[in-house]
Write the structure tokens for this entry.
Amino acid sequence: MSNLLVDVSALWVRFGLVDAVRGISLGVAAGEATALLGRNGAGKSTTMRVLAGVVPATEGAVEVAGHDVRTQTLAVKRATGYCPDVGGLVPRATPWEHLQLAARLRRMPDGWEARAQDLLERFELGAAAHRVTAGFSHGMGRRMSVVLAAFHEPAVLLLDEPFDGVDPLGVEATMDVIADARARGAAVLVSTHLRELAVQACEHAVVLRGGSAVAELAAYEMRGEEGAGVYRALLD
Amino acid sequence: MSTALSSTETPGTWRRRGNDLVRAVADVGPLVAFRASAVRGRGRVVATTALALIVALSVFFAWLPAHLPGAGGAPGGIPQLRADEAILLMPTMYLAVLVVATISAAASGGGRELLSREQGVAFPVSPTTDHFGALLMAPLNIAWLLQCWTVLAATAFVLGPDNLLAVQAAVLVWLLLATTFAQAIAWSIELLRRRRHGIWVVRGLVAALVGLMGWLIVSDRLVEVLDQSPTLQVLLAAVNASDGRWWPWLGRVLLLLLTAVAAVVVGALLAHDLARTPVRDELKVESATYSRRANPATHAAALLRIDRAGVWRAVPLRRGFAVLALLPGLVALASALEWYMLNILPGLVASGGALLFGVNAWCLDGRGTLWRESLPVGPRLVFAVRVVVLVEVLLAATAIALVLASLRAGVPTTAQVVAVLCSSVVVTLQVVSGSMRWSVRRPFAVDLRSARATPAPPLTMVGYSTRFALVTTFTAMLFVSTSRAESWQWSVLLAAPFLLVSLLRLMRTADAWESHEVRSRVVTAVAG
């Protein structure tokens, strides 16, 4: 029996006349991390949105933590933690209010506050916990989005551009979150443009181009100068 | 080496300023084209039709009343509407245009933007261009349009068809002056607000103005003061034209025109000053610490808390709410409206309130909408909570306006009270059902951070406000009738079908919102 927590088969997503995703298939097993790489418009964020239950698939089969995204969307949302590529924060709510909302809707047991506080401190957001997020810098917003995705310890962690504009300490904290998730048996999918960080965080990589998966390889194959050449060749 | 300006540099400075001005004016064109380019397909047809309709209606209102029976003192017409009596009100009506334009521009932090701050950050847009943009956008406001149509129509009626073109030219020049002057006042108020303790100074000034108005009303001196209004010159210019006395007409029109030009220049200078001052309101909200509250006990309470924060911590919504709650009530108080006329107020307030954010209700979540959609909660609950928040905002503003208005309305009958209550609930639900329908059908990515932000593009806002105005005014007039009835039950009977229709519409929109495809379209549009 497969232990895939993310199982995507022939996924198509169409917006009007545009095919944003064209027949992508991929799988991420428990305790594994996979990087989604590709140029702008390659279909990375759309794929993440489908997996998070935010955007419906036009065609194909998508299962997340054993739930069909099409028919069991709420169960999928319970099983996932999603850091969207843009924003991801309600502008006039504080980080703590975001956490309270998520804790309530995810029916987290009493005592979630300690973990939330710990994550805020690890991402150096403790001092800003009660300020509205509209005043946050881009990097602070990204870090907070990672906190929100990870704090309920989801079975599937979906991080879309989590390193974008984030300082080295924030990158380190995100790497820790990914490592923690893998250690407890979660599947992690990271979408990013930053190849070296993807290689560092994940063991597999899927390269997308024009909405299709053009390569699936071990992350170490994309390491260093040689890996950069391999990646560059896959983008054209 | 001396760094002092030499005498030879002065002309260069003036030339540079002149060049800057020319460039700033020239930049308005590309910005308008940029905004217009965002309107495509059917939207472009609708926008062109709407603009043509506005021009056609303006011509219609400026021309038709001059040819009605009784116009210009001609025989006929209805006895209650006499041109020779209405002419006495004209200076006050002209003044009202200035007041409404000033309130619109000041309440929105300096009027509408041709390009939002977020979009404009990458472009070298001069404050002068922003000033011209705000002037250009001022007419795209139903309150401004209604005032203009009213004065054009009233002037045509009181002076009749003689030399109507020249008569209305004087009025149009006044509309230009009122708009430019209002814009300059709005920049001044915004500049004052951004100074240290400026918000309190402005509130104090508004309170003093309200107090002065109250004193003038109580001491029965309001009419005396209004008779001294400088807008008498506008009427005299129009009368000069009507009588064919061209030199006095030309003198007055030129004076109005020169004052308008001066107001444009002063406004541009103030806009430059404003661009150099920090946005105190927004910074205060964004840097404030909000105390940690107990964890919400239910899903609905958690959603309500976030949605309410989205409303009450947004600068444009707070300002808009204050204006909507206080202004209609104070005007009604000043005019000592009778109870049956109070039925008009709820529609006015509810429409205005929905135009603050309700017509694009999902924009409260801004870019957080993607994250919110990833949370495990039923879409119907999310929809219901958003409806509750919109309803409570509108009803709160309506209640304040009605309480103020009722202070001088006398002792009501039961039928009058019930009519006002029914009218409030009915128009609120009408507006809410319309708002939620449009929110799902036409979502926009909007950042409600700035006081100048609106939930939808300007022309769309004109369309929304017009539809609200028509529906709620019609409904209110029906409740004006039932408030005159002896039995209060008539109002309840009248309210029932309206409520049913609004609830059915809300349920239909909730059904649409439940569709994953529809929701994802809204969410991705709002997230930008």
Observations:
- The first strand of chain A starts at residue 4 and ends at 15.
- Chain A has a mean pLDDT of 92.
